[in-house]
């Protein structure tokens, strides 16, 4: 945390006269109490597994309230999926979003920025000297201006039960064939190879996304929206076929269409499932006092192994900095709110908070960090394995929902993946259905581009 505060706000009538270091009154003067005002902060740190994340946010909130006279935050907690797909969309359409809110970078931030709903942060991050401190601001950048800031990074791969692997004499698989042999043996042992919870389509799609990025290349997803690649590409269809093949072989937990994301974790922490494909954010549950405390020191992490017939870099890893915070453009109309936003950014986006997020919550830094500083901060074997996987991934690719249009994301997440899982469609038909929606979305984008 910062060792000193910077005075960021002053009432328009010059009521406030506060020492910037400790908030005390200037000697020999009387400073009338600042007029109270409120800032609404929408966050998605809901549930036990996000308690550490919420604690970090809460400390930032208290720090900002101590720096900005009269300020009180009103915290609004909403499930991440509900916030992104329902609540925030409705608020943006009505023109009344919260002052600060959890924001998905691409494509959401670009859509809202184009509509004039987001605060331009470019002058603020330049003023605070942090514009060049982020690994990437591309997901939050529109027409050269920055409209959101990533809170952390995440990668996706396989968490594995070390106790089970040790008993089998296994090490993390180095080939795709080896991975499949392991899953077959786990199934033969009467155990569940892979945790599964497909009520929300994004959960199984994490793995499917990685499969098609192995078969068709890590850059293929970015080409769907430009028309350079199609969902009907034989190599993309191979990935759908592989996912369905694993379903039919019984490698996933039965009844997955009825399971929600929290049950996904439980299948793994209970020892029911030996492997769980998930984001690195999940590492936070394998800590003392958390839901996976019983597995501390017993969980490892590995990347999806290379596929012989795959295209492109077979070490490529899904990594993004697409989750962060955005700010309502209306904030610019209120000097006090604008000052509070600057204080929030200063206190949330700094090296100390990035390290705290990594150590306490397993969130990978979104800001540029010295490797030696990161290494010296980690004493968690799981996080060290995750960092090792990152270091050995020659290239990285973004998750599909940050690269394709909303209608395409809805089609694959709310319909096609569930139909594939339940054998209500074929891999070829799935590709054809997605391509139809993709072409419609691409045509609409082209029409909007030429519309004055």
Describe this structure in words.
The chain has 452 residues and is α/β, with parallel strands linked by helices. It has two domains: 37-150 and 322-365, Periplasmic binding protein-like II (D-Maltodextrin-Binding Protein, domain 2); 156-319 and 394-450, Periplasmic binding protein-like II (D-Maltodextrin-Binding Protein, domain 2), CATH 3.40.190. 43% of the residues lie in helices and 13% in strands. It is built from 16 helices and 13 strands. It has helices at residues 51-67, 80-94, 105-114, 122-127, 162-168, 176-188, 202-215, 220-224, 234-248, 261-269, 335-348, 351-361, 371-377, 381-391, 406-421, 427-450, and strands at 37-43, 71-77, 100-104, 141-142, 145-146, 149-150, 154-161, 192-194, 273-279, 299-302, 317-320, 323-327, 396-397. The strands form three sheets. Strands 7, 8, 9, 10, 11 and 13 form a six-stranded mixed β-sheet that branches. Helix 7 (202-215) crosses helix 9 (234-248) and helix 15 (406-421) packs antiparallel against helix 16. The longest helix is centred in the last third of the chain and has 24 residues, at 427-450. The radius of gyration is 23 Å and the shape is globular. The N and C termini lie far apart (47 Å).
CATH architecture of the largest domain: 3-Layer(aba) Sandwich
SS summary, helix count: 16
Principal-axes shape call? globular
Class from secondary-structure proportions: alpha/beta
Q: Into how many domains do the coordinates divide?
A: 2
What is the CATH superfamily of the largest domain? Periplasmic binding protein-like II
Element-level helix/strand string: EHEHEHHEEEEHHEHHHHEEEEHHHHEHH
Count the strands?
13
CATH topology assignment of the largest domain:
D-Maltodextrin-Binding Protein, domain 2
Under CATH at level 1, the class of the largest domain stands as Alpha Beta
- How widely separated are the two ends? 47 Å
How much helix is in the residues? 40-55%
Question: Can you give the mean pLDDT?
Answer: 90
Low-confidence stretches: 1-29
Main β-sheet description: 6 strands, mixed
Hey, roughly how much beta strand do the residues contain?
5-15%
Determine Rg (CA atoms, Å).
Answer: 23 Å
């Amino acid at each position: 945390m910062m060792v000193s505060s910077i005075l960021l706000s002053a009432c328009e009538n010059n009521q406030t006269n506060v020492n910037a270091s400790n908030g005390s009154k200037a000697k020999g003067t009387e400073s009338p109490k600042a007029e109270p005002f409120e800032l609404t902060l929408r966050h998605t740190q809901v549930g036990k597994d996000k308690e550490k994340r919420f604690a970090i946010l809460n400390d930032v909130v208290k720090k900002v309230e101590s720096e900005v006279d009269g300020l009180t935050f009103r915290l609004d907690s909403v499930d991440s999926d509900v916030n992104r797909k329902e609540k925030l969309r409705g608020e943006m359409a009505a023109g009344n979003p919260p002052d600060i809110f959890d924001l998905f970078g691409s494509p959401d931030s670009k859509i809202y920025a184009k509509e004039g709903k987001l605060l331009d942060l470019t002058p603020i991050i330049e003023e605070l000297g942090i514009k060049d401190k982020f690994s990437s601001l591309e997901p939050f950048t529109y027409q050269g201006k920055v409209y959101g800031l990533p809170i952390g990074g995440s990668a996706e791969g396989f968490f594995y039960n070390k106790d089970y692997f040790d008993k089998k004499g296994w090490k993390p698989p180095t080939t795709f064939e080896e991975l499949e042999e392991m899953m077959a043996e786990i199934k033969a042992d009467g155990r569940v190879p892979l945790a599964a919870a497909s009520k929300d389509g994004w959960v199984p799609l994490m793995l499917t996304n990685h499969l098609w990025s192995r078969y068709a290349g890590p850059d293929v997803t970015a080409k769907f929206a430009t028309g350079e690649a199609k969902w009907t590409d034989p190599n993309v269809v191979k990935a759908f076929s592989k996912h369905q093949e694993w379903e039919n072989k019984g490698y996933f937990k039965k009844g997955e269409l009825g399971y929600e994301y929290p049950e996904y974790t439980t299948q793994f922490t209970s020892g029911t499932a030996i492997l769980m494909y998930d984001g690195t954010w999940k590492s936070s549950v394998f800590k003392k006092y958390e839901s996976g405390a019983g597995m501390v020191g017993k969980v490892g992490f590995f990347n999806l192994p290379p596929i012989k017939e795959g295209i492109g870099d077979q070490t490529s890893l899904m990594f993004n900095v697409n989750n962060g915070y955005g700010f309502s453009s209306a904030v610019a109309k209120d000097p006090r709110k604008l000052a509070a936003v600057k204080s929030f950014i200063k206190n949330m986006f700094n090296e100390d908070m990035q390290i705290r997020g990594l150590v306490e919550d397993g969130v990978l830094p979104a800001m540029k960090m010295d490797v030696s500083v990161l290494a010296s901060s980690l004493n968690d074997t799981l996080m060290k394995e995750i960092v090792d996987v990152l270091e050995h991934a020659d290239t990285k690719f973004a998750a599909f929902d940050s690269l394709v249009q909303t209608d395409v994301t809805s089609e694959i997440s709310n319909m096609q993946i569930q139909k594939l899982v339940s054998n209500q469609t074929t891999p070829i038909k799935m590709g054809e259905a997605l391509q139809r929606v993709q072409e419609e979305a691409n045509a609409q984008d082209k029409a909007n581009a030429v519309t004055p």
